[in-house]
Amino acid sequence: MLFDLVRPAIFALDPERAHRLTVAALRAMPRRAPAAAGPLATTLAGLRFPNPVGLAAGFDKNGEVPDALLGLGFGFAEVGSITPLPQAGNPTPRLFRLVQDRAVINRMGFNNEGGDALARRLEGRRDRAGIVGVNIGANKDSADRIADYAQLTRLLAPLASYLAVNISSPNTPGLRALQDEGALTGLLDAVLEARSEVCGEAGPPIFLKVAPDLEPADIDAISRIALDRRLAALIVSNTTIVRTGLRSRHGGETGGLSGAPLRDLALQRLRDFRSASGGAIPLVGVGGIASAEDAWTRIRAGASLVQLYSALVYQGPGLARRIVRGMERLMRRDGFGTIAEAVGSE
Question: Which CATH superfamily is domain 30-342 in?
């Protein structure tokens, strides 16, 4: 109710300024305990998630407020995307609300304070509870992007619950080319070797975040490589560059589209990866999730976990808890005792 009252004032602000103010407000809040394990508790890659609803990368790029986010009821939070060196990102304006479409377009360009700044913050919360993953990327002007991912892995693997290798942002030119079979194999080998260098056999799980704008051959190749390299999970999916049926005046802006218009495409890609991998690799469903029904549909389609971000813009900070409560009811309705039983049950 409070969010409904203040939303007009928030929406009167430039979206990026509103986001900065939101992060500042979360930073100033008293710390709350992370979500406790409940009926939806589940395990993936050796990590025990109190519930399967996570916050996607992009909200807390610099790892400023992961504990505040966990205190909102999320079962896990993913910070980043982070690059080795600080970078300003793309010129402004670069973030747009598509209110009529319940969507967001961003072309932020991996703006962040760099790996060292994030490492210091994660070091400061090392003994706190809660699952905090780190989404890693490459600097825009890097001469060797694979080396960037390896560098971040060596720096952040000892501090992260898991690492998410992001090769799917549309806002860094050429980044999605790393989804090509040959490039992806080289990238993952470098990341896995870097993790072993600093963590031995005890390193954090490696997730891979992919785009929704893939052809069937790409999906097959990525699935095959992920299985061969024994990745812990695929995050399906990032934002889309496809524009269909948008009503907002910002619908023609370049960048990645997220929110409600991405829902059906992201759900289909989840099913595609489930089919291509034979269900042998865990999946994290992302894109257009705005309700318990959306999240439950992803679980039934094959996701072990789900993530959201854009829906928070329109529904406010109570969304995670509402989705968790709704999923508990849906799980009971459908006769499942655990999330693991429901995964892929459609």
Answer: Aldolase class I (3.20.20.70)
